[in-house]
Design goal:
Layout lengths: L4 E4 L3 H8 L5 E4 L5 H6 L7 E4 L8 E4 L2 E5 L4 H6 L1 H6 L1 H8 L4 H6 L2 H6 L49 H8 L3 E5 L5 E5 H4 L18 E7 L10 E6 L10 E10 L2 E10 L6 E2 L1 H5 L8 H11 L12 H16 L4
Parallel strand pairs: 1-3, 2-3
Antiparallel strand pairs: 4-5, 5-8, 6-7, 6-8, 9-10, 10-11, 11-12
Helix pairs in contact: 5-8, 11-12
Amino acid sequence: MHPFKYIRTEDAASAIAKHTETGNTQFIAGGTNLVDRIRRDVFHPDILIDINKLPYHKIEEHQGGLRLGALVSNSDTADNKVVKKNYPIVSEAILLGATDQLRNKATNGGNLMQRTRCPYYMSPEFPCNKREPGSGCSAIKGHNRILSILGTSENCIASFPSDMCASLTALEAKVNIMDIDGSDVVIPIEEFHALPGDTPEIDNVLKPGQLITSIDLPASTKKFAKRSTYLKVRDRHSYAFALVSVAAAVTMEAGVITDTRMAFGSIAPKPWRDKEAEKMFVGQVPSKALFEKIGEKVVKNAKGYGGNSFKITLVPRAVVRAFSEITGLI
């Protein structure tokens, strides 16, 4: 056990000030991922700052859309009546992730900040560039069944496991952040998470002292509420991370697709969206052939590493299944 200092704070300014005291300081809310990493000797904090008393526990309407407080639990988010009515894909995604007990503790802000479940990252006895930069990536030639086929680099092929974040990406959510000087920063969720490149240890664009306060779901994506789904393909129906997941949403008029959103989980180091593939839906009559073609477009530049190469075939099949369901083909 590595000793660390634990601090409770009741205002954001003091939390941010404490966060900048040392480079090895972490905010903690639900702690469902953070505590796992501490217990498994993956992360050794100097200071943990408990932010549960900060005023970010509400879900409220905002500019015609919905603002999800960063400290609202995943369970309360999934059960919220407005979320289920206007953004049902978010509720579905959350309910397909983890267990009731974990969802009761996990927070929306924490979900954004969770780290990969790559078995080598979570096992300190193996080299991992994400955990220890420059040590190597054990997964490339190792056990990589759940890992990425898109957005990888020679330094890391870890996958990002969040179901909620895939649904938020499809709905073009925005992440609200309090900066070190108290000012507000707004980041589209597509720009929040980082690809590994030469810096696999960096998961997102947050800087020291920045604090997530809320997530905004825009009014413009409420139109997808009637035709959307979150498909999670996994080894077993009970608690398991996705092999491939897809957040799918369309609007239709007179049997023709007029608009669509599509984002994937567990196939890349961040929630994956292919806007060019999305454009292929518009103006088309739903068909299995169309959906197969779009799925193939998504994986055009995919690279398998042996154990996860099956995902290159599974992604198009998931696209066909999800969009066939919401367009009425099945």
